[in-house]
Amino acid sequence: MVTNTSGKKKTAIARATVRDGSGKVRINSRPVELVEPEPAQLKLLEPFRVVDDDELREDVDIDVSIEGGGIMGQADAARTAIARGLVQHTNDAELRDAYMEFDRSLLVNDVRQSEAKKWGGPGARARYQKSYR
Q1: Comparing C-alpha atoms, which of 52, 12, 42, 39 is closest to residue 28?
Q2: Is the distance from CB of 1 to CB of 20 less than 8 angstroms?
Q3: In whole angstroms, what is the distance from residue 76 CA to residue 9 CA?
Q4: What is the pLDDT of residues 25-53, one digit of tens each?
Q5: Domain assignment present for 129
Q6: d(Cα 64, Cα 27) in Å, to the nearest integer?
Q7: Which domain holds residue 81?
Q8: In a domain, 37, yes or no
Q9: Burial class of 41 by CB neighbour count within 10 A (0 to 12, 13 to 18, 19+)
Q10: Could you tell me whether strands 30-31 and 2-9 are parallel, antiparallel, or unpaired per DSSP bridges?
Q11: Between β-strands 60-67 and 25-27, what pairing exists: parallel, antiparallel or unpaired?
Q12: How far is residue 99's CA from residue 108's CA, in Å, rounded to a whole number?
């Protein structure tokens, strides 16, 4: 059985394919163990650490392709895609509940976006100071 899922964070979009296999997790065709920096790698493997079930990882192969965003945004998007894929693939309500209890963003996209810069200031809301005399 093959399951396709996606995850988003800011401008990063991750698409994950979960299929029966031998425990390989690949991010953009590279093993997850080679992902740098290490905090991003830890974030990517979070869905496996939450449930503490070695069989879960050893029974599936996961391929994730990520586009856009920065390193941590991509890691957040990928972890959402991986967790969603595992829940769909196993069809396990307990797994879904464990993910929701740990961190809702494992299964639900973070819809926050950065606000656009406007005229009259250095950022989205800040304004240039003005002095009269």
Answers
A1: 12
A2: yes
A3: 6
A4: 999 999 988 988 999 999 998 888 888 77
A5: no
A6: 5
A7: 2-103
A8: yes
A9: middle
A10: unpaired
A11: parallel
A12: 10
> What CATH number is associated with residue 90?
3.30.230.10
Per-residue pLDDT of 54-97, as tens digits, reads 677 788 899 999 999 999 999 999 999 999 999 998 888 888 99
Q: Which residues contact 22 (CB under 8 A, 6 or more apart)?
A: 58, 61
Q: Is residue 127 part of a domain?
A: no
The tokens describing 38, both together, are: 């290490």
The whole model's pTM is what? 0.85
If one counts the domains in the chain, the total is 1
Give the CA distances from residue 30 to residues 20, 35, 50, 66, 112, in Å, rounded to whole numbers and listed in that order. 18, 8, 23, 12, 29
CA distance 55 to 68: 32
